[in-house]
From TrEMBL, chain A:
Protein name: Putative glutamine transport system permease protein GlnP
Subcellular locations according to the entry: Cell inner membrane; Cell membrane
Pfam family, one: BPD_transp_1
TM ranges: 27-45, 60-81, 93-118, 124-143, 224-244
Gene Ontology terms: cellular component: ATP-binding cassette (ABC) transporter complex
TrEMBL record, chain B:
Keywords assigned by UniProt, alphabetized: Signal
SUPFAM superfamilies: Periplasmic binding protein-like II
Pfam annotation, one family: SBP_bac_3
Superkingdom: Bacteria
The Solute-binding protein family 3/N-terminal domain, residue ranges: 23-245
Signal sequence interval, chain numbering: 1-21
Keyword Nucleus: no
Chain segments annotated as transmembrane: none
Name of protein: Basic amino acid ABC transporter substrate-binding protein
Keyword Signal: yes
InterPro entries, alphabetized: Solute-binding_3/MltF_N
Natural source organism: Candidatus Abyssobacteria bacterium SURF_17
From TrEMBL, chain C:
Keyword Methyltransferase tagged: no
CDD domains in the cross-refs: ABC_HisP_GlnQ (cd03262)
Protein name, UniProt field: Amino acid ABC transporter ATP-binding protein
GO molecular function: ABC-type amino acid transporter activity; ATP binding; ATP hydrolysis activity
Family of the protein in this entry: Belongs to the ABC transporter superfamily.
Sorted UniProt keywords: ATP-binding, Nucleotide-binding, Transport
All residue ranges annotated as the ABC transporter domain in the record: 8-242
Length: 261, 245, 246
């Protein structure tokens, strides 16, 4: 009896809404509606102390989004090169890329951030935002690298052969033929990683970066209103990640167009 | 587990010569030398620890110290995770709404720590610069009150001092015994940092033991102990040992 | 026909896949404008022979000279050589993210640095030539197999190659689509293109081939004019093979 092959995919990112999902009730809609309703209820009807806390949050949200956007951009670039490095036939390049991935995956992000900010201060004094963005990108670059590697490998070898037979070199083949196609495979996991990254930016609050979480912690530690503070902070994070996951799913839909007859 | 703890408490009570001593569990974040911190042998030590032990001997309770992160320390008290907080808690009106306080056991002022070559005489001189303090401390409130300073809140005062030492910020405001510990005695920092000034905020601040609202039994015991320590002049000895003023 | 110097010279080529000998001391010269059809049972090394000619597979010994350039010599630019050799695959391998027209334009623009407008005009001409002018803006997924293969041929032609290699171009097609592809290939042969074709389409072979090559076990066992090849093949294995497929 043949054993059934089962693949379990687990991601720490929020679920990306399925592109084809046209049903009225989806997990995304339900979560979004609940979060939005709760948010409005707290702000409009309860007001105190939520309104007072909310006024402190915009700067924090901006910092969180700045760190997130810069880190996604940089980690995608690092991920691309790491992925290419991991597929390289050059032994040295391959070894460097693989070692980077191993090392980064073996060290907790929190420790990496502490290291960049406090430990490396002996040699180079990174400003807090730079330390935050570099820390997040170096860590997520390794994860993205694995995504890129898998995405590139998923493209049929025939595509490479066709491109090569036309005289394209490796770089041209990669950037004109393979990557544009791999994007469709790569985008959902990159989106997932980006959402996980956004959530993990809360860790940069330990670098005294005034992000969303730190704003909340300051408020809570002064007012002792832990329940109220973290309820609102959780809702705000949830709303942001839900919006981001929707954006990813819309992009996915666009990229998928050429496969439809 | 429960039995082991009971036995330990019993043994400790016997050692202090007070067979019926009540155990009071004090939460401390233990990052605030010389008041309370973790020494090389990983024990919680400091001025406040000695003070509460002396108070315990006088009033008949056994203090046990539990290390808890600062920014959840008040929530833990409300949730009955321990009996009291002994962690350089300044007595403020805001806090009095949420918890009870013992009589003060230490008078504290806010000190501004700066780099040795800095000419800042007070917070006013640091406008347009970044000044750090520990999250939700009196020092942080003092920094935030000054317009034009970019306040930065740290989880631990040690990290703020390290950032000052590295040059990412231009000053740190903290309680004066802590400032003295870092700027005058600490081997790593004493040659680079100095106490710029003692900030005169008008009213004097006191450290008290925070106790859950309504827990009069613990409150009375602690107050009794502190009174006795002051009456016997034991506090001078402890002050001398840890702070030297 | 043989008064020119050969455009392809394959000299004592051996190629191993692990321990399997895919090409066993293979030698073959192809003259400019010549049409060679290679037949043989599966696993005989036909496809491998095609693929070593533009170095999609690397040979283990021997030499291959295309247009006076040794393609395994480090000093020759393999990308330039490949641009002169068009290849058509069994599975078409059209770039799935590009329209038919874009498939044709990619290599001229990227490799030859042809201006886009010029490349587009040439691409449209070629789409016309393969009878698919109206499908220029279609993506591969919107085309039938036969149409895809015709686009793939046009794509190879867009580089103005001097040689065309066909690796079982009709094997993946439904029967009703084979004809349209063969017609394009026959047209190409009439235009004087040098062609090496691996195929099982014997009608096509009879009509087009200047020489037939029979391979088995990594070796070339017989090379003959199609009339002799189909009527009285010399080699026993060749006879058996032809009996089976005809």
């Amino acid at each position: 009896m043949a054993e059934k092959q089962v693949t379990i995919e687990v991601s720490d990112g929020a679920a990306i809404p399925r592109t084809g999902d046209r049903g009225l009730v989806s997990a995304w809609r339900l979560s979004f509606l609940i979060a939005l309703a709760l948010f409005l209820y707290l702000i409009v009807f309860r007001q105190e102390p939520y309104l007072r806390l909310l006024k402190l949050l915009p700067d924090g949200i901006i910092v969180t989004l700045e760190v997130t956007c810069a880190s996604i951009g940089l980690s995608v670039v690092i991920g691309l090169f790491t992925g290419l490095g991991r597929l390289s036939r050059n032994r040295l390049v391959n070894l460097v890329a693989s070692t980077y991935v191993e090392v980064v995956r073996g060290i907790p992000l929190l420790v990496q951030l502490f290291y960049l900010y406090y430990a490396l201060a002996r040699f180079v004094l990174l400003p807090d935002m730079a330390a935050a963005v570099i820390g997040m990108s170096v860590c997520y670059g390794a994860y993205m690298g694995e995504v890129f590697r898998a995405g590139i490998q998923s493209i049929d070898r025939g595509q490479t052969e066709a491109a090569m037979s036309l005289g394209l070199n490796r770089m041209q083949t990669m950037f004109s033929v393979i990557l544009p196609q791999a994007w469709r495979t790569i985008l959902p996991p990159v989106g997932n990683e980006s959402i996980a990254l956004l959530k993990d930016t809360s860790l940069v609050s330990i670098l005294a970066v005034s992000d969303l979480l730190r704003r909340g912690r300051e408020f809570a530690a002064e007012s002792f209103l832990y329940f109220e503070t973290y309820t609102l902070i959780a809702i705000v994070y949830l709303l942001i990640t839900l919006i981001l996951s929707k954006l990813v799913s819309l992009m996915e839909e666009r990229l998928g167009q050429y496969e439809r007859p | 587990m429960y039995r082991a703890i009971s036995l330990m408490v019993l043994a400790m009570s016997l050692l202090t010569g007070n067979a019926w001593a009540k155990t009071i569990v004090f939460a401390t974040d233990a990052t605030w030398p010389p008041m309370e911190f973790v020494d090389e042998n990983r024990r919680v030590v400091g001025f406040a620890v000695d003070y509460m032990e002396a108070a315990g001997r006088e009033a008949g309770f056994t203090p046990v110290f539990k290390v808890v992160a600062w920014d959840g320390i008040f929530a833990g008290l409300a949730a009955d995770k321990y009996d009291a907080i002994c962690s350089s808690v300044s007595i403020t009106e805001e806090r009095r709404k949420a918890m009870d306080f013992s009589i003060p056991y230490f008078e504290v002022r806010q000190a501004l720590v700066v780099n040795r070559d800095s000419s800042a005489d007070g917070l006013e001189d640091l406008k347009g610069k970044r000044v750090g303090a520990q999250i939700a401390t009196t020092g942080y409130f003092a920094v935030r009150k000054v317009d034009g300073i970019e306040p930065r809140s740290y989880d631990e005062i040690g990290l703020a001092i390290e950032d000052l030492y590295n040059g990412r910020i231009d000053g740190v405001v903290c309680d004066d015994p802590v400032a003295a510990q870092y700027a005058l005695r600490n081997k790593k920092y004493r040659d680079s940092l100095k106490i710029g000034t003692i900030i005169e905020s008008g009213d004097v601040e006191y450290y008290g033991i925070a106790i859950k609202k309504g827990d009069t039994e613990t409150l009375n015991l602690v107050n009794e102990g502190i009174k006795a320590v002051k009456a016997k002049g034991l506090d001078k000895e402890i002050l001398n040992k840890w702070i030297g003023r | 026909m043989n008064d020119h110097r050969p455009i392809i010279q394959i000299k004592s080529v051996c190629k191993y896949f692990g321990r399997l000998k895919a090409l066993d001391n293979v030698s073959l010269d192809v003259a400019p404008g010549e049409k060679i059809v290679i037949v043989g049972p599966s696993g005989s090394g036909k496809s491998t022979l095609l693929r070593v000619i533009n170095r999609l597979e690397v040979i283990d010994s021997g030499r291959i000279i295309v247009d006076d350039m040794d393609i395994y010599d480090n000093s020759s630019n393999i990308h330039e050589i490949r641009a002169e050799i068009g290849m058509v695959f069994q599975n078409f391998n059209l770039f799935r993210h590009k329209t038919a027209l874009e498939n044709l334009m990619l290599a001229p623009v990227k490799v030859r640095k042809t201006p886009r407008l010029e490349a587009e005009q040439k691409a449209l001409q070629l789409m016309d030539k393969v009878g698919l002018r109206d499908k220029a803006q279609s993506y591969p997924a919107q085309l039938s197999g036969g149409q895809q293969q015709r686009v793939a041929i046009a794509r190879a032609l867009a580089m103005n190659p001097r040689i065309m290699l066909f690796d079982e171009p009709t094997s993946a097609l439904d029967p009703e689509m084979i004809r349209e592809v063969l017609d394009v290939m026959i047209g190409l042969a009439r235009d004087g293109m040098t062609m090496i074709v691996v195929t099982h389409e014997m009608g096509f072979a009879r009509e087009v081939a200047d020489r037939m090559v029979f391979m088995d076990g990594g070796q070339i066992l017989e090379i003959a004019h199609p009339r002799h090849f189909f009527e009285k093949p010399k080699h026993l294995r060749c006879q058996k093979f032809l009996e089976m497929i005809l």
